[in-house]
Design brief:
Shape of chain A: globular
Mean pLDDT of chain B: 92
Radius of gyration of chain B: 18 Å
Strand order of the largest sheet of chain A: 1-4-6-8-10-12-14-16-18
Largest sheet of chain A: 9 strands, mixed
Structural class of chain A: alpha/beta
CATH architecture of chain B: 3-Layer(aba) Sandwich
Oligomer: heterodimer
Distance between the termini of chain A: 46 Å
Low-confidence stretches of chain B: none
Low-confidence stretches of chain A: none
Order of helices and strands of chain A: HHEEHEEEEEEEEEEEEEEEEHHH
Largest interface: A-B, 25 and 28 residues
Helix content of chain B: 25-40%
């Protein structure tokens, strides 16, 4: 069955399902008519260094994708839709075995003005060391991004997706396999789009995999940003941490739902997830639901937590006593809150660049 | 001080929180270049006085005035007071995870002393000298404000800020608590360097006379039950250390 037929066969998802509780499929479908598969354009993709120069050899974008997708999980509907829609916009990001450029590399995606979609498969070579930022910009009404593939054995990867669209809807789905002893930091920085539905899944099927999933989410006005994160421990001695910070202002709403699973046989697994929400106005709303499924008894640990609250008045007073005016103190505390996760996403150079990108957005948004 | 405008003048200050009066008519004058100390038991109103001068929003001033160099502070926001030259070294400095010390210091100095003072070689030299004097390592700059700091590190960091901001009036709220002997000496040297020989002033709030052995105050005041019940020279601090506060009640 091809992806389009699979999508049609799956029908309308149930709003009672965990995955669709807060943001219905209809709301993130490009036209709202879920029986339709509208034609979608192709975004422009380019690889470069932070200074705009060409990346060194060892990393490249190749057209087309090899292999079949796994439709066994409950992200099948989204993935079938995106896969089918992106037939003419499929790319493989190849990182050669042992490639270590020493500097962050930017994958820039410019969706243009009309609705578009892309499918990028990651093929991150063994024992490579790479910092990759996927930066999405533009004024498109709708953009869909499917990321699949694998981070191979022993690779070290900081993989940050930076959503800075000025408007519209972003539908994003990640389904990425983590190889043996691979070390991954998967960061999401989101402060664009009016509506985001992201389903991010990381599968550790080999021993020794290690992942930190980090979110720095800034919502303002009437934005609606829904992130669902799943981390699956399917092998022994796997490690994961999920730390998700959302700052919500205006009448915006953020949703963070997490699912950690530890399959039987994943002895020595160590997993934890925590969601922090900073509420910047009375009408802002944040929902976080961390969930666990642990089928193995012999684990190091498996914890979860969530914390919501407004800006700390004592912190405000401290900054004001140091000369910060009301706006400056508030924006500094929002930036600090988001920086707690942002600073974990990569090295110093990447971090400084991310801070500058987010600061511009912070200044522009009325939180 | 005939003819001289006081640096700080507190007149009949009544203030409290949630309708409970804590300060019940405080009068105090600090002249330029003077260091005063306030001593008193827990709950006597010392920290309330510090917070009211700095403009903490939780406290209400019912009566009286707080005047810095001829200008009332009471209608000013905390940051306006800071920019006028009031500095409060907090008893319990707030941690701000995610806010790097280096960025925080630059922003603070820029807000209070102006953008030019917060950049260039002069700022870097002043910062390096202050850090050396306070025995603060360079690695401090990359840490987050007060996040994971030990008690001693927090107090040194407060004094570092004071040295960079060169305030007109420094209020030091139990800066000596949580410090060991060497820490008290180092912090005292920082206070002396920032205040002595200038026309700025300081108000040291403390329980103990130890810090006052290193920072000789010009005047010592005793706060009990929200009122200054006794004032004197440095010898008053020694007397309090030896005899406690009971004798004051009897008097």
């Amino acid at each position: 069955m091809d992806s389009a037929s699979r999508y049609i066969s799956l029908g309308k998802p149930n709003r009672a399902d965990h995955l669709w509780r807060y943001t219905s499929w209809k709301k993130v479908h490009p036209t709202g008519d879920i029986a339709e598969m509208p034609p979608l354009g192709q975004p422009e993709l380019s690889l470069g260094m932070m200074d705009g120069s060409e990346p060194p050899s060892g990393i490249r974008l190749e057209q087309g994708i090899e292999g079949d997708l796994d439709f066994s999980m409950d992200n099948a509907l989204t993935n079938a839709f995106l896969h089918a829609s992106a037939k003419s916009s499929q790319w493989t990001l190849v990182v050669d075995k042992g490639f270590a450029p020493g500097k962050p590399i930017i994958l820039e995606i410019r969706p243009g003005d009309s609705p578009s979609v892309a499918h990028i498969s990651l093929d991150i070579g063994e024992i490579s060391e790479i910092e990759l930022v996927t930066k999405i910009t533009g004024r498109s009404e709708w953009f869909g991004l499917l990321r699949t593939g694998q981070i191979r054995n022993g690779a070290i990867m900081n993989d940050v997706v930076l959503g800075l669209q000025e408007k519209g809807t972003l539908l994003r789905s990640d389904a990425i396999a983590i190889g043996r002893d691979a070390q991954v930091r998967a960061g999401t920085v989101s402060s664009g789009s009016e509506r985001t539905k992201a389903d991010l899944r990381y599968i550790m099927g080999d021993p020794g995999g290690n992942i930190r999933v980090l979110g720095s989410i800034l919502s303002a006005d009437s934005m609606h940003l829904d992130h669902h994160i799943e981390i699956h421990h399917e092998a022994p001695e796997t490690f994961s941490r999920l730390s998700w910070h959302s700052a919500c202002g205006g009448s915006s709403r953020t949703i963070g739902t997490g699912m950690l699973t530890i399959r039987k046989g994943s002895k020595g697994a160590d997993a934890a997830q925590i969601f922090h929400n900073l509420l910047l106005s009375e009408s802002a709303k944040a929902d976080s639901i961390p969930e666990l499924e642990v089928m193995e008894n012999d684990v190091v640990g498996c914890g979860h937590g969530t914390a919501n609250g407004p800006i700390d008045e004592d912190q405000m007073f401290y900054l004001k006593a140091r000369g910060f005016d009301e706006d400056s103190a508030k924006s500094s505390l929002i930036a600090a809150f988001l920086n707690s996760t942002l600073s974990e996403m990569g090295g110093t150079e990447l971090h400084e660049w991310l801070v500058s990108e987010l600061s511009l957005k912070l200044e522009a948004l009325d939180t | 001080m005939p003819g001289k405008t006081p640096l700080l003048e507190i007149n009949d200050l009544h203030a409290g929180i949630d309708g409970n009066e804590i300060l019940k008519g405080i009068n105090l004058i600090i002249g330029p270049g003077e260091i005063h100390a306030i001593m008193g038991r827990n709950g006597s109103g010392k920290t309330t006085a510090a917070n009211v001068i700095m403009g903490h929003p939780d406290f209400d001033v019912e009566k009286g005035d707080v005047i810095l160099e001829g200008e009332s502070l009471l209608e000013m926001e905390p940051w306006e007071r800071a920019r006028k030259g009031v500095f409060l070294s907090f008893q319990y400095p707030q941690a701000v995870p995610g806010l790097q010390v280096g960025n925080f210091l630059r922003k603070s100095v820029a807000s209070i002393r102006g953008e030019d003072e917060a950049k260039g070689p002069n700022f870097r030299e002043k910062l390096a000298n202050a850090m050396e004097a306070l025995d603060i390592p360079r690695s401090f700059m990359a840490r987050y404000v007060n996040d994971g700091f030990s008690g001693g590190e927090k107090k040194r960091f407060e004094i570092l800020q004071m040295m960079l901001l060169s305030p007109r009036l420094a209020i030091l709220d139990e800066t000596d608590s949580g410090l060991d002997i060497d820490g008290i000496r180092t912090v005292s040297e920082g206070i002396n360097a920032a205040i002595r020989g200038t026309d700025s002033g300081a108000l040291i709030i403390t329980h103990y006379s130890r810090i006052l052995e290193h920072v000789q105050p010009d005047r010592v005041h005793v706060l009990l039950g929200g009122r200054i019940v006794s004032s004197g020279g440095p010898e008053l601090a020694t007397k309090l250390e030896e005899r406690g506060y009971e004798w004051l009640k009897e008097e």
